[in-house]
Design brief:
This protein is α+β, with helices and mostly antiparallel strands. It is 35% helix and 15% strand. Strands 4, 5, 6, 7, 8 and 10 form a six-stranded mixed sheet that branches. Strands 2-1-3-9 form a four-stranded antiparallel sheet.
Length: 275
């Protein structure tokens, strides 16, 4: 029994699902049908193919704690040529924050709660109890490995594992949608212009953007009141342009307002002022 297989059986006994890795940190196809990607899985074998030997036979989904499968003839050749042991963090109820360089490690030390740390070839694995979706490149040099992913087993590390914190979960949270460009016709105006210079209007728009951006609660109300203030000051003389209005809408959408909400607030403000 070689070193990799022995380590795999020890991990499986601790309820950590394992699989063999060949050189390059790539999983094996664990039967002839899967050799050289013949089964149709992705070339790097990081996702399971349709083969059932056992089902599925390679990638993260092949990770198992069943010693009978681990020592089976289907996996025997793989263990003989294995360069490393991998495990499925999500299957073990864990999440790995993979810090791949010095900058990523510095970020982790400044940002993340203390937990168990495992040194890697170029960085560190920070292990937490709890699972979440896996994702690569959540920030420079940082990957998340948990469900539907595998990580190399590089030892048990040091430190006490902490619960998976919200700051890590937030790394894969959906980013706010980009603001939808909205072109709203500017008021025709026709009244007397009270602006002493273009800088007066520019300052007013910038202040309105800032008011929206700095709103911490009641965003709907704040956006409506800001639109109302802008229109009451600049809506009758014809100086307000579509570009000015677009800036206000962009600021509102950055706070979570939809294009529809912006349009409704603008229309309501115009109606209130009789524009």
């Amino acid at each position: 029994m070689n070193e990799q297989l022995r380590a795999a059986l020890d991990l499986a006994a601790s309820r950590i699902p394992v699989l063999p890795l060949r050189a390059g940190k790539v999983p094996f196809g664990n039967c002839r049908r899967c050799a050289d990607n013949a089964c149709g899985g992705r070339p790097n074998m990081k996702t399971p193919g349709p083969c059932t030997c056992p089902a599925p036979c390679h990638g993260w989904a092949a990770a198992t704690t069943d010693s009978a499968v681990i020592i089976s003839p289907a996996w025997a050749t793989a263990w003989q040529g294995a360069a490393a042991v991998a495990y499925h963090p999500g299957g073990a109820g864990l999440t790995v924050v993979d810090c791949d360089n010095a900058d990523a490690i510095a970020w982790a030390r400044e940002t993340l709660p203390a937990t168990r740390i495992v040194p890697t070839t170029r960085g560190e694995h920070w292990l937490y109890v709890g699972t979440m979706p896996s994702a690569n490149g959540v920030r420079p040099g940082v990957d998340i490995k948990s469900t539907m992913a595998y990580a190399r087993w590089l030892g048990s590390g040091t430190g006490t594992m902490a619960a998976l914190p919200d700051v890590v979960r937030a790394l894969t949270a959906a980013k706010p949608a980009a603001p939808v460009p909205v072109r709203v016709p500017a008021p025709v105006g026709g009244g007397e212009c009270r602006h002493r210079s273009p800088a007066y209007l520019e300052r007013g728009i910038a202040m309105a953007e800032q008011r929206i951006t700095e709103t911490s609660s009641g965003v709907h109300t704040a956006v409506y009141r800001t639109f109302l203030a802008v229109l009451s000051t600049h809506g009758r003389c014809g100086c307000l342009t579509e570009d000015h209005i677009a800036r206000l809408f962009t600021a509102a959408q950055a706070k979570g307002e939809t294009a529809r909400h912006c349009m409704d607030a603008w229309t309501n403000a115009r109606t209130t002022l009789g524009l």
